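Allow me, if you will, to draw on your knowledge of protein folds for a short while. Thank you for your consideration; the sequence and its C-alpha cells are set out here:
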Amino acid sequence: MVFVEWGGRWRTLAFGPIFCGIALVIELLTGPVVHWIGLAVIALVLVGFTYVQVVAARRHATVRLTRDMLQQGTEDVDIDEIITVFPEPDYEKTGGDPERWELARALGELSGVPRKRHGVGLRLRGGGLVQAWAKDEETLRERLTELVAARKQDSA
C-alpha cells in the first residue's frame, strides 16, 4: 500500500457502551434505582446502529492506493489509466472560479466527494476528467503524481 485512508474506524463501536457504562456508574453512585437491563439494551442498540454506519463508511469512503490501482470506495482505477494529476487549485489565478476538474464526477458510487474529503483532479486516458478524493488530499496528490511519473518513465 502506498496510501490508505479508512472510511470508518471500528473503535467507534465502543462509544455507545462506554457512555452507557458511565451512566451505570453514575446510577450506582447517586440513586437507589439502577437500570441494568435498560442500559444494556441501549448499549446493544447503539452498537448495532454504529456497526451499520462503520461498514457503510468503510465500503463507500475508503481510499486505497497501490502501485497498480487507485480504489475510491467501490470504484477501482488502474494507474495506467491516469494521464495527469492536476495541482491544487489556484483561485487567485482563476479569479475564484473552480477548475474544470472540480466540476467533474467524483470517483466511487457516491453522488459527489464524500463529506470531510477534498478532491484531487485526474485526467484519464481518453480525455475524461474525474475527481479522486481523500481527507489528506495533499499526500494522495503527491503519491499519485509520483506513481504516474514513474509509469511515464517506464513506458518511455
In short: The CA atoms of residues 34 and 63 lie 44 Å apart. Helices lie at 15-30, 36-60, 91-94, 137-155.
